[in-house]
Amino acid sequence: MKHIFNIFLAAIILLLASCNKEKKLDHTAVTTVENFFIPEDNKFVKLLPTTSASVEFEWEQARAEDGGVVLYEVAFIAEGGDFNSPAYKMVSDNNGLYNKATISHKVLNTIANLAGIGSLETGKLKWTVFSSRSINTKQSPVVRTIEVERPAGFAEIPTDLFLTGSATEGGETLADAIHLKQTANGVFEVYTSLQEGSYHFVDRTTGTPVSYYIDGNVIRLDGSTEVSGAAKVYRIRLDFNNIAVEFTEIKKVELWFAPDNTTKFELPYAGNSRFTAENAKIDFKQESWGRDERYKFKFTTSDGTTDKEEWWGSSNADNSRPDDNTAESFWQMFPINNNDQWNYCFKFKTQVDGAPSDFTVIMGADAPYTHQVVVR
User: Fold this and answer.
1) What is the pLDDT of residue 141?
2) Which residue among 53, 206, 273, 310 has its CA within the 20 to 30 Å range from the CA of 261?
3) Which residues lie across from 287 on neighbouring strands?
């Protein structure tokens, strides 16, 4: 019995010793990353304005004393910067679990901008890796450089855009700023008038918005554009992907009547991105098969030197005559590449024939471009 007791006592002592040894393990201890694989030091990257291009960053694994999971972050600074206050810091792939990071050109463009590298400029970024276990974080002693050339455009592209200022229809009150339509990622346009005064663009109408202005044919930060002379109507397109601006004067909008192969009347600009002809009349043309009512719209535009024609009509090459049950989408307007007499025309309701009506083309931002015909 005494022998059994001694064996039991020895087992307890060994177990306690093992537990004490376990307790001595530092569950937060982690090693630094001692080696970087890619990209090589001083790698040059010409950043592209696309979301698909990327650069791979990969490094040797760190080790946790308790054998647990190590997390990683990649940090970037400008030359002469301090990794205690990095320009940008991000977790590695798979929420920090992988010893690599796939960083898109778009994100690198943002990092370069934060590090003070301007649009179309070339500059260097320093980068390193932090390994962490629980609350313990270790900076790698290895630091590499990546040289980048930024593309034209802004690192942070607005998701919304408004026009404001004394030259605009909304005036200088930010809450009354004119909303622009987003036609593609980073591309906005507005149909509006400008009078003598100044204007600029903002990304929001509350708080402290980011401000943009037009300088010649490019977009700049923090300024305004002056307007002189008589008021005119414009289509203004801004492409933040390449900081380009397209300024087009809308000189005239007319209703074009297919049966007569000619325009019938002008729709003067009425403000609020609308062109309206009030109390106008259309007489359908009598043909052997019935009365023809096809129409579309002709815009006369100018780039400042040359007048051009733009045609707007239906998305359908042919249409049936609408009635009170026809969907609103029937009247939506789309640019047409040619002035074919018959195709891509709308058709009037029967009630429009010979009746005084109001015709309105609506080129606002908050709905598809469309038009209305209201019989008086």
Assistant:
1) 97
2) 273
3) 290
Query: Residue 198 and residue 223: Cα distance in Å, rounded?
Result: 10
Can you tell me whether residue 165 is helix, strand or coil?
A: coil
Domain 36-149 belongs in CATH node 3.30.2290.10: no
Mean pLDDT by 10 residues, the chain (376 residues): 51 53 65 96 87 89 92 95 95 94 90 88 96 93 96 82 96 95 92 96 93 89 92 94 88 95 95 96 92 95 91 92 93 88 93 95 95 95
Per-domain boundaries in the chain: 36-149, 162-242, 250-375
How many Cβ atoms are within 10 Å of 303's Cβ, its own excluded? 11
3-state secondary structure of 182: strand
Q: Which 3 state secondary structure label does DSSP give 348?
A: coil
Nearby residues of 49 by Cβ (< 8 Å), 6 or more positions away? 105, 106, 109, 151, 152, 153, 241, 242
Which is nearest to 262 in space by CA: 313, 288, 289, 296? Answer: 296
Distance of CA 271 to the CA centre of its chain: 27
The structure tokens listed for 55 are 């650069």
- Is the model's pTM score more than 0.85? no
Neighbours of 244 (CB within 10 A): 15
Q: Which amino acid is at 33?
A: V
In sequence order, the 6+-apart residues with CB closer than 8 A to the CB of 247 are: 214, 217, 234, 236, 237, 303, 304
- Give the count of beta carbons closer than 10 Å to the beta carbon of residue 168: 23
At 11 the pLDDT is 54
Please give the structure tokens belonging to residue 31: 């090693």
